Amino acid sequence: MTDEWSRSEKKIARRVFDAALHRELAAVLQTFKAMAASASDPESMWSTEEFLSKSRREIDSKYDYRYSQLHAVFGRLLREGRISEEDLSGLSESKMNVILRIAAF
């Protein structure tokens, strides 16, 4: 995107990005703890490891804080229900239009 990010938009983007990442990591941690606590055999132990590896790959590919990627990141997070339009209040209309189009896919 050629649309530059203003200082205030950068602050909004960082806040929204960090909060969404924190919530998703907290959910993964909660699931991991439950899986680890109930692991009773090697198979369940390896299932827990597989869950963590898959979660890390998904999170690493989803959360890309490059300004050129934030439209897609926020569009995906909006589609997944991890953020709301209100969270993005303060972004330019052109950015919101792109984000909403991506979220609609």
Write up what this structure looks like.
The chain is mainly alpha-helical. 71% of the residues lie in helices and 0% in strands. It is built from four helices and no strands. The chain has helices spanning 7-38, 42-62, 70-79, 93-104. The radius of gyration is 17 Å and the shape is elongated. The model has no long low-confidence stretch (mean pLDDT 96).
Mean pLDDT: 96
Note the run of SSEs as H and E. Answer: HHHH
Q: Helical content, roughly?
A: over 70%
Ends apart, CA distance between termini: 18 Å
Low-confidence stretches: none
Radius of gyration: 17 Å
Query: How many structural domains?
Result: 1
Count of beta strands: 0
| Major sheet description | none
Q: Tell me the strand percentage band.
A: under 5%
Structural class, from secondary structure content?
A: mainly alpha
Q: What characteristic shape results from the CA principal axes?
A: elongated
Total of helices: 4
Question: Can you lay out the helices and strands and say which pair or pack?
Answer:
Blueprint: H1 7-38, H2 42-62, H3 70-79, H4 93-104
Helix pairs in contact: 1-2, 3-4
